[in-house]
């Protein structure tokens, strides 16, 4: 724990979509290790607020900031607020995301745009804004939360798959570009994880069916994705760059 703390202490870690689900689990663990955590949220103000309070009650540093990560001005304001209050972002987790499950022929332009804006443009805007200070420090960590659906086929998920597949390609190329500045950029590809996204898309029977397809016989938990994310953010992952870490209980194989 002491080793972990020396790496994490005073590092500013921004988690987009940190109000709930996987993002909240990442925020809690990063705060536990000693990072100053920024919980970005879009609509879940109460959840973000109570998460920040519970981190602070345990002696951690945390701040909640509302921003729609698909809007350039909102992202700029979020980074300015962080820089004024905590300092520049050392670790960025592009976690915010939305999914869509429907036939392509029924998919509207607005739905296509929303998926691309939040899942792909948001990480682009946040990376672009975070990288300047990281390049100056010649140090930084970025983790993009993609999806197993960006790697394997899934019926009725083609637009979500395209966005997450794009995020994986973005991660690999940006990692090659930023390596010379000592910045690592990796992606996570979770399989089915038991959060709101899955609850809204699948009924109980479908979730049970999905769990049955996974060699471990169950859905994943947010905390299990968070552990993998924290590893990629840690000092121990210093030579891992441009990688995609699959967390799916063996489902894809
Ligand atoms: P979730 O519980 O539905 O949470 C989604 C998060 O994204 C929320 O915190 C939400 O914030 C935030 N968000 C949505 N639109 C936003 C916007 N415009 N600006 C800022 N934040 C926004 O989903 P989750 O399961 O934790 O998913 C987290 C990430 O993992 C997503 O990128 C998802 O695609 C990916 N993933 C999930 C699974 C899974 O099975 N659960 C599998 C593979 C990949 P508010 O609540 O504040 O609006």
Can I get a quick summary?
With 253 residues, the protein is of the alpha/beta class. It is built from 9 helices and 7 strands, in the order H-E-H-E-H-E-H-E-H-E-H-E-H-H-H-E. The protein has helices spanning 2-8, 21-33, 45-57, 72-85, 109-137, 158-178, 196-201, 204-213, 222-233; strands at residues 12-15, 36-41, 61-66, 91-94, 140-145, 183-190, 244-247.
Which helices and strands, and how do they pair?
Layout: H1 2-8, E1 12-15, H2 21-33, E2 36-41, H3 45-57, E3 61-66, H4 72-85, E4 91-94, H5 109-137, E5 140-145, H6 158-178, E6 183-190, H7 196-201, H8 204-213, H9 222-233, E7 244-247
Parallel strand pairs: 1-2, 1-4, 2-3, 4-5, 5-6, 6-7
Bound molecules: NADP nicotinamide-adenine-dinucleotide phosphate.
Structure report:
The chain is α/β, with parallel strands linked by helices. The protein is built from 9 helices and 7 strands; from the N terminus they run H-E-H-E-H-E-H-E-H-E-H-E-H-H-H-E. It has helices at residues 2-8, 21-33, 45-57, 72-85, 109-137, 158-178, 196-201, 204-213, 222-233, and strands spanning 12-15, 36-41, 61-66, 91-94, 140-145, 183-190, 244-247. It has a 7-stranded parallel β-sheet with strand order 3-2-1-4-5-6-7, sandwiched between helices. Strand 5, helix 6 (158-178) and strand 6 (183-190) form a beta-alpha-beta unit. Helix 5 (109-137) runs parallel beside helix 6 (158-178). The longest helix is centred in the middle third of the chain and has 29 residues, at 109-137. The mean pLDDT is 96. Bound molecules: NADP nicotinamide-adenine-dinucleotide phosphate.
């Amino acid at each position: 724990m002491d080793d972990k703390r020396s790496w994490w202490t005073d590092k500013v870690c921004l988690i987009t979509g940190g109000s709930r689900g996987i993002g909240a689990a990442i925020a809690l663990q990063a705060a536990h290790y000693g990072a100053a955590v920024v919980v970005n949220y879009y609509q879940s103000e109460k959840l973000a607020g109570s998460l920040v309070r519970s981190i602070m009650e345990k002696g951690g540093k945390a701040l909640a900031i509302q921003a729609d990560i698909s809007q350039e001005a909102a992202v700029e304001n979020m980074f300015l607020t962080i820089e004024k209050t905590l300092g520049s972002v050392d670790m960025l987790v592009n976690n915010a995301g939305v999914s869509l499950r429907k036939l392509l022929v029924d998919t509207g332009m607005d739905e296509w745009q929303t998926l691309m804006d939040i899942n792909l443009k948001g990480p682009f805007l946040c990376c672009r804004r975070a990288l300047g200070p990281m390049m100056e420090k010649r140090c930084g960590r970025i983790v993009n939360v993609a999806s197993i659906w960006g790697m394997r086929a899934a019926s009725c998920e083609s637009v979500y798959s395209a966005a997450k597949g794009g995020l994986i390609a973005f991660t690999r190329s940006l990692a090659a570009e930023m390596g010379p500045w000592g910045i690592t950029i990796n992606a996570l590809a979770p399989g089915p994880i038991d959060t709101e996204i899955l609850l809204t898309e699948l009924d109980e029977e479908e979730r049970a069916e999905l769990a049955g397809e996974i060699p471990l016989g169950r859905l994943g938990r947010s905390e299990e994705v968070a552990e993998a994310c924290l590893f990629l953010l840690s000092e121990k992952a210093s030579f891992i760059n441009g990688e995609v870490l699959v967390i799916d209980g063996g489902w894809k194989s």
